[in-house]
TrEMBL record:
NCBIfam families: PRK05474.1, xylose_isom_A. PROSITE patterns: XYLOSE_ISOMERASE. This is Xylose isomerase. Its cofactor is Mg(2+).
Length: 434
């Protein structure tokens, strides 16, 4: 046990509360569209930002001083990793969210060899398993960090050095094993450096084939090993590489189709990444749903005055509601959920800041989902959408060829007249609910 969160009580639902550490909108047992709110939202805490991140940014280093950081533990990295896990599960108990997520490098220290790193991961997996059994907190997804270490500076699966490809493949195997052992609901492949800086030294065709083969091997191993969770890819357009191969949902879908994996792999969509790709979050969600590959989400936000991924906690209810409207239209989450891939500002130093950030974000998401659910249940937007396309009901145009359509236009003297899209009126409907 630690004393990091000493003096803080478990977060409770109290709609009349005025303190920082009460839910005013997130009542986990509230029934929305026939399902508990907790089961709709499936909240998850990101281990890396909440417990591993030291508070740096591109222009400054560490600002956080956590008791589990190795320098505070005299360099005993495994003891530090276990203390970090103790603190994490203490926060989970206070917060009461059902899930968490991790990269391998978040929960175990790097060893001097792959074998040592894998052994440490295995030891920490057992340690986390004991805590999960004691608390009931589950694993939403696991993943491998194939981007932080200098060996991955030119990518992992797409690296020009086959030794790095092999090292990355072995790492993914160990992380799939750990995720399976902890009964994770999903496994995520996030290509943090799968891209290029310049075409002067890049063979795009070769790297694409390497990435495809790598993903096929990962899917094949996961299934053969008995992991029955969902395999997810997380699209990201840039930062740190100039152009990443998993740019957005459409790019990922084309990649999956190319390698015959569109029925095997879904996407984990992050709000901040959608914005960096020049899209809205709801666009990416709607597109993924229409393609049948919507899996899970990372809920955060960017500072729209900055040109990089700031990973802030969500605070905009209308923005969040638009995202959940698309999730609900798609039928809601199955194995996926709402992961807070968000971090404190580097000036937010206190333990209570970390807990309060999640409390506020969970309330924002609850408000957004409930507004989206009310609008969906009313049927107002869906009726307007159906009316707009009603002319297609019973139409045979999609089965005709161009010549036959042209003859029909002449024979029936078809003269189309524009019809209002009613955008402003639909926005007014939306705003009545949000």
């Amino acid at each position: 046990m630690t004393d990091f969160f000493q003096g803080l009580a478990p977060v409770r639902f109290d709609p009349d509360a005025t303190d920082d550490l009460s839910f005013r909108h997130y009542d986990r047992d509230e029934i929305v569209l026939g399902k508990r709110l907790e089961d709709h939202l499936r909240f998850s805490v990101a281990w890396w930002h909440s417990f591993a991140w030291p508070g740096g940014d591109p222009f400054g280093g560490q600002t956080f001083q956590r008791p589990w950081f190795p320098d505070a533990m005299g360099g005993d990295t495994m003891a530090a990793a276990k203390l970090k896990a103790d603190a994490a599960f203490e926060m989970f108990a206070l917060l009461g969210q059902p899930f968490y997520c991790f990269h391998d490098a978040d929960i175990r220290p790097e060893g001097d060899s792959f074998a040592e790193s894998a052994a440490r991961l295995d030891e920490m997996t057992d340690y986390l398993g004991e805590k999960m059994e004691a608390t009931g907190t589950r694993l939403l997804w696991g993943t491998a960090n194939l981007f932080s270490h200098r060996r991955f500076m030119a990518g992992a699966a797409t690296n020009p050095d086959p030794a790095v490809f092999a090292y990355a493949a072995a790492t993914v195997k160990s992380c799939i094993d750990a995720t399976k052992k902890l009964d994770g609901a999903n496994y995520v492949l996030w290509g943090g450096r799968e891209g290029y800086e310049t075409l002067l030294n890049t063979d795009l065709g070769r790297e694409r084939q390497q990435a495809g083969r790598f993903l096929c091997m990962a899917v094949d191993y996961a299934r053969k090993s008995g992991f029955d969770g969902t395999i997810l890819i997380e699209p990201k357009p840039q930062e740190p590489t100039k152009h990443q191969y998993d740019y957005d949902v459409a790019t990922v879908y084309g990649f999956l189709k190319d390698f015959g994996l569109e029925d095997e792999v879904r996407v984990n969509i992050e709000q901040g990444h959608a914005i960096l790709a020049g899209h809205s979050f709801e666009h990416e969600l709607a597109l993924a749903a229409s393609l049948g590959i919507l899996g899970s989400i990372d809920m955060n936000r960017n500072d729209y005055q900055s040109g990089w991924d700031t990973d802030q906690f969500p605070d905009n209810v209308p923005e969040v509601a638009r995202a959940y409207y698309e999730v609900l239209r798609a039928g809601g989450f199955t194995t996926g959920g709402t992961n807070f891939d968000a971090k404190l500002r580097r000036q937010s130093l206190d333990p209570v800041d970390l807990l309060a950030a999640h409390v506020g974000a969970m309330d924002v998401c609850a408000r957004g989902l409930k507004a989206a659910a009310a609008l969906l249940e009313s049927g107002e937007l869906e009726a307007a959408r159906a009316a707009r396309y009603a002319g297609w009901d019973g139409s045979d145009l999609m089965e005709m060829d161009l010549d036959a359509i042209a003859r029909r236009v002449v024979d029936e003297d078809i003269r189309p007249e524009p019809v209002s899209g009613r955008q402003e009126r639909l926005e007014n409907i939306w705003n009545r609910y949000v």
